[in-house]
Specification:
Number of domains: 3
Strand order of the largest sheet: 2-3-1-4
Helix content: 40-55%
Order of helices and strands: HHHHHHHHHEHEEHEHH
Structural class: alpha+beta
């Protein structure tokens, strides 16, 4: 698929999401119904969709509307790409820009819109975060890093990193925990890797690993994980 065809696919998916369909189900169904799209195409389209969801307010402002088309226009402008080079209407690509869409958006967006902060949360977050408000909001606009926990019952962190590296998955130790590895390249390969299949590593945020490390566990005692979700910290404590 060409970059423009990927944009067209993302527009359709975003419009369906805006109409109320769950995004994960949309992406899965689209992949099954469009077998011509390779793994790289599906990954690229997924990235476009989730980039638009994280930056919905700013992309809508830059693109002129809170539609799938408007969000993709905003994404291109945010990335410094002229939308007219993508929206040509030739083949399987989005129709050409309208006169209204060709208008240059304002250079300076209001701060809450530029950092994609919901109006209802802006005052609370500013009060809570203080000087960290903008850095935190900007961080939330980016894809979250992928962290792994090395299973020390089966390996060491260094050996787990080496096993992943042998399959092209690059990692680096993270200072929050002696078991934490941050994936720096090819994160999508992790769950197909031999290291994953053999239980050398599992997905877990570095902060969650640090919480488990810092727990004062009594010998032979019982611990209640009152807010367990997937049970990652519970497993680490066990």
């Amino acid at each position: 698929m060409t970059p423009a065809a990927r944009i067209a696919a993302a527009i359709g998916l975003l419009d369906a999401w805006l109409a109320g369909a769950p995004v994960e189900r949309l992406l899965t169904t689209w992949g099954r119904q469009n077998r011509y799209a390779g793994a790289k195409d599906r990954a690229a389209i997924r990235d476009l969709v989730f980039d638009a969801l994280r930056c919905r307010r700013s992309f809508a402002a830059l693109g002129g509307s809170a539609t799938g088309r408007g969000l993709m226009l905003g994404l291109l402008r945010a990335d410094g790409i002229a939308p007219g080079t993508i929206f040509t209407g030739e083949g399987h690509v989005p129709p050409p820009l309208t006169a209204a869409e060709q208008a240059v958006p304002p250079a300076d967006l209001p701060e809450e819109i530029a950092c994609d902060c919901p109006d209802a949360l802006a005052a609370v977050l500013r009060d809570s975060l203080g000087a960290d408000f903008l850095p935190v909001m900007q961080a939330l606009r980016q894809r979250a890093p992928v962290f792994l926990r090395a299973n020390l019952r089966r390996t060491t962190r260094d050996k787990a990193a080496a096993a992943l590296a042998s399959e092209g998955i690059e990692t680096r130790p993270h200072p929050l925990s002696p078991t934490a590895l941050e994936v720096t390249a090819n994160a999508r390969r992790v769950q197909q890797s031999r290291a994953w299949r053999e239980g050398l590593v599992e997905l877990q945020d570095a902060a969650s690993q640090a919480v488990a490390d810092l727990m004062p566990l009594p010998e032979g005692g019982r611990v209640l994980d009152f807010c367990a979700g997937g049970g990652g910290k519970t497993l680490a404590l066990a």
